[in-house]
Each structure stands twice: as structure tokens, then as C-alpha cells.
Design a protein that fits this description.
The chain is α+β, with helices and mostly antiparallel strands. It has one domain: Arc Repressor Mutant, subunit A, CATH 1.10.10.10. It is 46% helix and 14% strand. The chain is built from three helices and four strands; from the N terminus they run H-E-H-H-E-E-E. A hairpin with a 2-residue loop joins strand 2 and strand 3. The radius of gyration is 12 Å and the shape is globular. It starts with a helix and ends with a strand.
């Protein structure tokens, strides 16, 4: 992956952390929140950022910054299927 290809993913990492910072310590966000916040258009083009947002969240899990949850419980990002939430590590 080239630097220009990594830039949107790195931006999504920043967006995820910024969104969580604005909320309470136990608050969660959906990857779509990050995709929408990072997308600069008026249409539903943010949907193309959903998988990059999930990848960014997985990298932040690896870095120890966040955890991915399902049904309110932390899950292994590699095992997560379906809707996920992202929250700061407790």
C-alpha cells in the first residue's frame, strides 16, 4: 500500500479517536460515524469508507487505543462478524 493509499485510513484513525474524545469515557461509536465524519460529500459516498473505517478500528485495537465490541462485550476483531461498536480501552 502506498502512502497516498494509507492517508484515508490514517485520517479515519484520527476521526475515530476524535469522535470518542468528544463523548463520555464509556461511549461507543459505529464505524459508520467515522465514515460519515471523514467523508466530505453530500451524498451517501461515505459508504465506501465503511471497510476502511473497520480496518482503522482494527489497527487502533492493535495499538491498544480502542476495543471493538459486539453486544457490549469486547471481541477479537478477527472474529467479529456483523455490526460492531468502537470504544476507548477501559
Amino acid at each position: 500500500m502506498t502512502d497516498s493509499e494509507r492517508q484515508p485510513d490514517r485520517r479515519l484513525e484520527r476521526v475515530i479517536l476524535e469522535l470518542l474524545e468528544r463523548r463520555g469515557p464509556s461511549a461507543t461509536i459505529c464505524p459508520s460515524d467515522a465514515a460519515r465524519a471523514a467523508y466530505e460529500g453530500e451524498d451517501d459516498g461515505w459508504r465506501a469508507l465503511m471497510e476502511p473505517a473497520r480496518r482503522a478500528a482494527r489497527r487502533l485495537v492493535t495499538a491498544g487505543e480502542v476495543e471493538i465490541t459486539q453486544s457490549g462485550r469486547p471481541v477479537d476483531p478477527a472474529q467479529a462478524r456483523g455490526p460492531i461498536r468502537i470504544r476507548r480501552v477501559r
